[in-house]
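<instruction>
Derive structure tokens from the sequence
<data>
Labelled lines for chain and fold
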Amino acid sequence: MMTPPKMGIASVSMAPGLSNCGTPAHSDGSSYGLRTASLSPLETLAQSISAACPTLTPFVTVPLVYTLAGNGTWLAYILGTGAILLVAWCISRFARYSSSPGSLYSYAAMILPPWLGAVAAWSLLLAYIMGSASNIGAFYFYANLMIKNATGHMLPTIFLAAIFAAPPVWIAWRDVKLSARAMLVMEGVSVTFVIAVMALVLFRHGLHGDPNQLHLRGVTPSGFRQGLVLALYSFAGFEAATALGSEARNPLKAIPRAVILTSVLGGLFFTICAYVEVLGFGMSGKDLGTSDVPMHVLATVGRMPVLGLLIDVGALVSLFAGVLAGITAAARVLLQMSHNGLTHSSFRATHAHNETPTGATIITGLAAFLPVAVFALKGTSGVDVYGWLGMLAVYGFVLSYALVCFALPGYLRDHHGVVNLATRTIPYIAGLAMVYAVVANLYPAPQDVYGKLPYVFLTYLALVLLFFVFRPPVKPAVQAES
């Protein structure tokens, strides 16, 4: 039995994996074999925004939050944004000093016990993979819905899943810069269409506010509490830029900004969408909580029904960007885990020309596709696949966020001598908020499959820890800070 050491990080002011000039560098001078400093700040931001898949929130999450919080949906997103900003602050503090492909795992492993570092690593890896898988499930559902509306026929779901999953894997392997630019364009187009519909609805309603929402009519404390927890899940993946630590240009500035900007912009976008969707459905006389095509209804209210179709297309494009972002991040986390002895050494390999992690990209892409393929062959609805696998991803993200928040005070104190009121309070408030998000989602226990997912996640963690304790000796390939 072997207990591996923590990541080989020295307690000095420089960040792990950074040279004195702030450029990521591995001990062999190759920066893990990745393309150093190739991504602009905007391309780095695209990674975080795409991983959060913002266009899906007005499609799926806002209606779900509305069924619980009702006219308080907009307020649930405001408070949810505040909680996520606290987490983003904690992550950004780490990102100001430390940069590597390991994302949140690297941060947690610098200060937490080795077994908790392993938990953070495997939780984050599961989150990125299951997040990508859930988007594939959502794609085959909405794609078939559009095809059926247009032709009256449907395509085999396994076929749609396969043709959707393959291109993101290829792009992620081919070129990280191509990947970032593709995500930037795709998310920009889809979000623009949604904003256009929201603006049209507001124009039709006029400048006066919605009294039902402003006075929180019909909102119950228990429903609002559950809706608030669900609203937090719209932000999952907002930290994905941290996986580009070796590839971002000036990462100690670009990555913290990307994390903060994604949480702020995402919060504004989600809050506006929540308010306008409830307003628009009130004008239409329809029920937001039961609508399969909320954007179509809003586009009709705004007297531009053609935008409903464009947003449908934009949502599919956003799903593609989300899968691409998830696989890109997962591959780099797996690469870092391999360098630190948590996985097989073959995942350290990077392509000599593309400078991307070959084996890690392929295996994470397959891991995202295979569970979806099984569900598709069984005839499972894409909405269920999206919900089930997405919830597993959420558990992984929330646990990773909590561990990073709890690790921050010790890291700043021991490595950089920073101790103040903010570092003594904000990380614990943020960490406890993430713990509350999980606990509140379990009581009362969800019905059907959702009630079993926490046990699936706990079983996964138990297997991870068993592997961590009893695995054969693996030689880590880590470096101390410069």
